[in-house]
Amino acid sequence: MKRALGLGEIMIQMNPTEKGALRFQTLYERHVAGSEANTITQMQRLGIECSFLTAVGADEFGKVVLASLRSEGIDTSGVVIDEKNPTAVYFVQRGYPVPDKTMVFYYRKGSAASNFGPQHLKEEYFKGLDLFLVSGITPALSDSCKEASLKAVELAKKHSAKVAFDTNIRINLLKTKENAMKTLEPFIRKADILFTGMGDLAMLFESDFDRSRESLRKMAEQARLLVFKKGSGGIEAIVDGKRYSMPSYKVPVVDELGAGDACDGAFLASYLLGKPVEEALRYANVAGAITVSLKGDIEPLPDWKAMETFLASQEAGEKRLLR
Amino acid sequence: MKRALGLGEIMIQMNPTEKGALRFQTLYERHVAGSEANTITQMQRLGIECSFLTAVGADEFGKVVLASLRSEGIDTSGVVIDEKNPTAVYFVQRGYPVPDKTMVFYYRKGSAASNFGPQHLKEEYFKGLDLFLVSGITPALSDSCKEASLKAVELAKKHSAKVAFDTNIRINLLKTKENAMKTLEPFIRKADILFTGMGDLAMLFESDFDRSRESLRKMAEQARLLVFKKGSGGIEAIVDGKRYSMPSYKVPVVDELGAGDACDGAFLASYLLGKPVEEALRYANVAGAITVSLKGDIEPLPDWKAMETFLASQEAGEKRLLR
Amino acid sequence: MKRALGLGEIMIQMNPTEKGALRFQTLYERHVAGSEANTITQMQRLGIECSFLTAVGADEFGKVVLASLRSEGIDTSGVVIDEKNPTAVYFVQRGYPVPDKTMVFYYRKGSAASNFGPQHLKEEYFKGLDLFLVSGITPALSDSCKEASLKAVELAKKHSAKVAFDTNIRINLLKTKENAMKTLEPFIRKADILFTGMGDLAMLFESDFDRSRESLRKMAEQARLLVFKKGSGGIEAIVDGKRYSMPSYKVPVVDELGAGDACDGAFLASYLLGKPVEEALRYANVAGAITVSLKGDIEPLPDWKAMETFLASQEAGEKRLLR
Amino acid sequence: MKRALGLGEIMIQMNPTEKGALRFQTLYERHVAGSEANTITQMQRLGIECSFLTAVGADEFGKVVLASLRSEGIDTSGVVIDEKNPTAVYFVQRGYPVPDKTMVFYYRKGSAASNFGPQHLKEEYFKGLDLFLVSGITPALSDSCKEASLKAVELAKKHSAKVAFDTNIRINLLKTKENAMKTLEPFIRKADILFTGMGDLAMLFESDFDRSRESLRKMAEQARLLVFKKGSGGIEAIVDGKRYSMPSYKVPVVDELGAGDACDGAFLASYLLGKPVEEALRYANVAGAITVSLKGDIEPLPDWKAMETFLASQEAGEKRLLR
Amino acid sequence: MKRALGLGEIMIQMNPTEKGALRFQTLYERHVAGSEANTITQMQRLGIECSFLTAVGADEFGKVVLASLRSEGIDTSGVVIDEKNPTAVYFVQRGYPVPDKTMVFYYRKGSAASNFGPQHLKEEYFKGLDLFLVSGITPALSDSCKEASLKAVELAKKHSAKVAFDTNIRINLLKTKENAMKTLEPFIRKADILFTGMGDLAMLFESDFDRSRESLRKMAEQARLLVFKKGSGGIEAIVDGKRYSMPSYKVPVVDELGAGDACDGAFLASYLLGKPVEEALRYANVAGAITVSLKGDIEPLPDWKAMETFLASQEAGEKRLLR
Amino acid sequence: MKRALGLGEIMIQMNPTEKGALRFQTLYERHVAGSEANTITQMQRLGIECSFLTAVGADEFGKVVLASLRSEGIDTSGVVIDEKNPTAVYFVQRGYPVPDKTMVFYYRKGSAASNFGPQHLKEEYFKGLDLFLVSGITPALSDSCKEASLKAVELAKKHSAKVAFDTNIRINLLKTKENAMKTLEPFIRKADILFTGMGDLAMLFESDFDRSRESLRKMAEQARLLVFKKGSGGIEAIVDGKRYSMPSYKVPVVDELGAGDACDGAFLASYLLGKPVEEALRYANVAGAITVSLKGDIEPLPDWKAMETFLASQEAGEKRLLR
């Protein structure tokens, strides 16, 4: 069985039951989310044996995070329980002021996960590993997180695991373009597999897609695989210099949060299981489509059977109920 | 007043408040549904005097089923209260893994209704009756249900009531194509009015619509009226050999369950009240359109006034609020 | 700071959590709404210093109405607490029998607000005022409301405030076309700024838009500004005889109630703040678009920042999440 | 089978999901209630064949009322559909400002039911009837309701049905003590079976229970049966001059509304079925106890089996789960 | 670390959001429960390393059961996924007709777990085990479950694990007293630790507690530890012939389901960790008290810290808020 | 009219809809609360003209806080909008592990309010003021808050307003007993009216009530009025050296949060309005009793009419419904 390891912050997401300005929302559903954990959960559901590194508070929400990972069968032996700092929380505002767009309000400063550091990494986690995943969010959380991320990349390389990196820029953590580049560049340079999106590319380089893609390719000197997520514009990959692209599926957009992570996870699982690039891109698209069509980041992540059912329905345009 | 009688199972439907994989759904709404009962309720709302034959458990959910029929004014004097077996239950999964599609999980094996048998039929139910309705689900439930269905068809014929039959194939009850054909053929041969859909035709005969329609026509030797429900492709009828067809209305699809039953009910009520075929098809389309635009099978079924309001709105493209 | 004053009834709106025939709805959300109060709240959120005149019952729902106005910072010193008559209530039926259309059921006969009369008007409310707003609903409520509305128009004129009037015909209050014209004509003749919609124009004059617009222009002898709200057909204005028009934004329609009021409010606030007509129309369109995309009349009303975010998103077609 | 007929108003009850001042309640459950209908429903559940006389609006809430009666099997052929006036609505405030007490806010003025009159009574409703029930609420609604109530009493007497009357004073309808006495006296004088409570007795006569009971006995010249409901103080009856009394069961009080009606219904059903007075009082107590322990007026009303289960549990103090 | 293994059925529990007759309940919460799994989860939360044996359907509800166990860190490698039979479901009716009592309606006939059999047991599960737990429910489910339970007891004995057994009679599975005794006797005779309750003792032997306790002691020839759960009457143990007893804590009873299982789990964990009997009984009482004070079987199960907080609060009668 | 001013933090309270361990709670209601704001709101509802000083984030939750104050008519012109720091949030866990006890989890570090400082105080706020209120929470938030609190006390004294202080110890902010004393002593020494509770007294001095009360009296050298809140043990006051005490009302405890603040507010309003001490204590008790019987801190706070209704009900033991 293939093994993957992720590193990142997992937060409690408070999502109002209704769309609209948060100030009028009085009822909230509690979810759990975190970009790297979303991706790792997607991989675990697709048959990869995953483990995850993070820190959570010694509080009730920390228990929620652990239960979420464990309920999927993800190994949590590397999760740090921080007695001093809390598990982070964020609030989501959906559909206001722009219909179908989401805004988020974070309570993550000084969180347990942002106090995760290189001292929490044990070399044993990396032995026998096939893939290590981190995104641009983790090094942006704090200096200790950045150091831990860099050390983890080194340990992965040392043990011959591939390094997957998603640029995932959070501008309210990174503050400026310059800091974004400074923080992410070391990871872009070392990644074996690199994911990015249109907005991130524009932020790092320039708004012209062709030129910024080229700039990224040059910087990503070790990356054999580059994946460009273009939202409703589909998905594109460059593998050993060859370009592949695929349009996205047309589905009703309910909640765009987490779709990119689902994409990454389905692509990486397909890749680890040795599927051809075209197939990996198709499954990435399917996972993204299913995820945008439902609320929550983690709940919609499909297993293989769910993806095959989706594909069968798409391909046949078949209209019968399944009962 | 025209009189109609239906026979079939009525179940408790547990419908989660949110779309998505059932394993993440923690809150469920309880509804009541059953294909033949949906159709009969539609007819009752359109002014036909209806009664219904079924069995329910001597439990709380049996009382829900009875209350649902009685609240519409449907005569329930023929409903059997089964002291030993429970009222069936099923769970609905909406929008996962295919957006806008529904999957169902049944707890109906050994239910009260599947123990309904010919011994529960009294000839008096059929006296003065204008129409008897059953669908392919009922004979698929159990041997006793199949015998009861056949005996009911005979009693209806004996008392000069028209027999309406909807093929309504449930493959998880019938298991194979062969068994489906074996179970349904006697009803197709004896029906005076026959309803079917694209999926059912393909299952019984072949996937080419024109050829399977022809095969059905030949088998349905006593049917003066055949109605083909084609989902978003509209509705088609063959009456005394003449074809009529009508496109469907464009409405947002919220829950496709029950739309076909609404169609049947509005067509049959129109027919019993002597409306021309074109009108009956139009009302069938309207009832289906209103039903797919709302959750629940029974709740959306329109009365005449609701259908006229819908038609007025469609025809005028009128945009004003009604207040 | 510019000052505006509104007059009208504010009601408790009971809005079921689900779409469909009201008889099957068992759970309702309580909202607060009233056409003129919606418009005034929109203006207050856009920086106009507003006050409001109405009467509420000496009951819990009257306290809800007062709290709603006060929470926005609207001056309620002119609100009458009526010890004898209740605050009005209405029930909303959404999506049945016509998808995306709303029906309302009022319990407003003999309400506190319909007992508001000229004796409750103090001249001091009109001193230093820039704009007075009333709509066709208020004079339709009762004779005393009609007299109060007329007296308020006179007091506004006396103190050099502009009079804004929206025809806002409620046929279940006005009963006949003739009574509608008789009731509204004095206000149309005296308004400085006049708002109307397609349905109202057809009711007052004739269904041909060009001709009825011309008829209105002739009757509205003092109106320098006429605004025609055409729903999804956009918005049109005639200012000192010159025509301006603008298409509406394409957004998903969730609840059309209150959109016209948001339009009026954004237009009037823009006008009072001295923005050019084209800009006022654009903001009217934005406020309407945001309001139809969310439930509730008052909750979605945007402030300037929300409107700029909406416009930025529209203009750039920008797809990134804001986080 | 014994037959009973009731007359009264049935309203839509809007009951917030939480306790507290109504102004802070934003979510409401819709129930159906009406004193006489509660009592009649209790009787129907206990095997009496019941019918009901009332008027409802030609609106969605009128359909709710009809469905509620019909779902129980109660004959609604005498219910008037009023095209002009609405079904009444009321709002409930629970637990504020007094814990465990309930306040109500009515929207019933000019309702369909208050326009019910003697012209709606057909003599055929009273043929073969065993019992006619009305309470002090109905004559308090309007003059036409009072006339209809008196005429119904006469028709009942003419056809040898017993007349049951509950004083059920609603002071916000009757306004004064004097009017209460004037309105209720004719019914007290003619009743064969009379129900009253401590508060009503104090309002009609004086606060001393012994003396006011004596006053009532004198006035109730035709009453063979008088039942005094004393809340947590138990229940008392005088039958042909002989006194019986029974303490109430100790249960947690969740919602006291409807408990008195349940009492009346269980007593009357027991009486009609020929049970001895002691038993009738015990069942009245049980029905009241079950009803105060749950929300809603109609939902908790027990059938015989439920009452026997309650009694078994009370008598044995038995603690095991039933599974 | 001490290791424990449980065997039993885990079901989906549908629990209405409100108390009252199930027929009026329209909203349900989904929980997970099963007597032996409740006990094992309680032990896992108290630091015992647990695994569980059961079968679940290859359906969404089977995934819920697995996720529930895994989220606690319980080893599920012995759980069978049954492709043919469904995960069982049951519905709960709270507070009707007896306040504070619960009734249950099962849909468990032919479930996946009832098809669990001796062929699913691997000897390796029992190596190094300290305790094996089963209750009287499992052998009552089916012949194959009975055989599996007996074989598991033998395997436990072979590998020197203690056998804990709770009589846990489900009369609707066992049908008669005779069958109850016949089914449970082999387990009573072989148990090392035996739990029972008042109702079970009366069912197996006679209603007199002293005599039936004596009868049980004689039959339980290998049991060094017998625990008698007496509900609000406290808890009693006989250890090597010596009697210990302790009164229960006074807490508000919200949901009595699962309290006995919590008791068992806290007692067993204390025992495995070497605590004295008095302490084990105290913690059993605490776990039971916390569990009856909250809804759900699994959610309330306390960890050591929660139990210490409860005890501190009880002992000090301390009233301050913890913040 | 009497005028009062409060200073303190107002937070968003996320309160799960169900009791139990927070990790299992998935649905939360949003409330608003803050000790001093609760007290000030209670005073405003009792006819005192209040204003409030605090800082909120320039975020949606800051708007909620402002709307809450404004909806009561409280003057918010001194509220600072902080562009950099967020409005604080806290989560409530009710009934676990101790039934009827509440635990809270704060996200308030670095909040807007904890950045409030002396620079935000304008002397004009204190002119014409009758009473200034602050509690021990505010100086515990940060150094700047402590300085602002001290400066506000001085300004109040300068303008002859009474200073009311509630010790209100939050040990998770103050960390140690020593720091608690050091932080609160200056306020205790300067207060004119002093409120405290049993837990606070024990923390500051010693657990013996009589001795610690005496210690407090000595330290509170300027306090003419000392109020001791003893929870279910009632309330006690020392006024100019004379002791008054009153037992508490017996009501069901639903949510103890905010009851002490309600007490303070009702006492202070009574005092400002010149009522005798006994009356002030009685109203303090009533306000506390109503507040513990309902969820939320602010919602239950009674006005005079509500308190009179409560008292009437208590005094008469009157049992009739109010309708």
Determine the strand fraction of chain A and express it as a percent band.
Answer: 15-25%
Helix and strand run of chain A: EEEHEEHEEEEHHEHHEHHEEEHHH
CATH architectural type of the largest domain in chain A: 3-Layer(aba) Sandwich
Widest sheet: strand ordering of chain A = 4-1-9-10-11-12-13-14
Major beta-sheet overview of chain A: 8 strands, mixed
- By CATH reckoning, the class of the largest domain in chain A would read Alpha Beta
Helix share bin of chain A: 25-40%
Spatial shape of chain A? globular
Report the structural category of chain A.
alpha/beta
Instruction: Provide the gyration radius of chain A in Å.
Output: 19 Å
Largest interface: B-E, 25 and 25 residues
Query: According to CATH, what is the topology of the largest domain in chain A?
Result: UDP-N-acetylmuramoyl-L-alanine:D-glutamate ligase
How many beta-strand elements of chain A? 14
Oligomer: homohexamer
User: Uncertain runs of chain A with pLDDT below 50, 5 residues or more?
Assistant: 318-323
Mean pLDDT of chain A: 94
Distance between the termini of chain A: 34 Å
Question: What this model shows, in words?
Answer:
The structure is a homohexamer of 323-residue chains. In chain A, 38% of the residues lie in helices and 22% in strands. The first copy, chain A, has 323 residues and is α/β, with parallel strands linked by helices. The first copy, chain A, has 2 domains: 8-35 and 57-116, UDP-N-acetylmuramoyl-L-alanine:D-glutamate ligase; 36-56 and 117-315, Ribokinase (UDP-N-acetylmuramoyl-L-alanine:D-glutamate ligase), CATH 3.40.1190. An 8-stranded mixed beta sheet of chain A has the order 4-1-9-10-11-12-13-14, with helices on both faces. In chain A, a hairpin with a 5-residue loop joins strand 12 and strand 13. In chain A, helix 1 (35-45) crosses helix 9, helix 7 crosses helix 8 (209-219) and helix 9 runs antiparallel to helix 10 (277-292). The longest helix of chain A has 16 residues, at 143-158. Chain A is globular, with a radius of gyration of 19 Å. Chains in contact: A-B, A-C, A-E, A-F, B-C, B-D, B-E, C-D, C-F, D-E, D-F, E-F. Chain D binds chain F through residues 18-21, 24, 95-104, 106, 170-172, 197-199, 231-232, 256-257, and chain F through 251-252, 254, 289-290, 293-296, 299-300, 302, 306-307, 309-310, 313, 319-323.
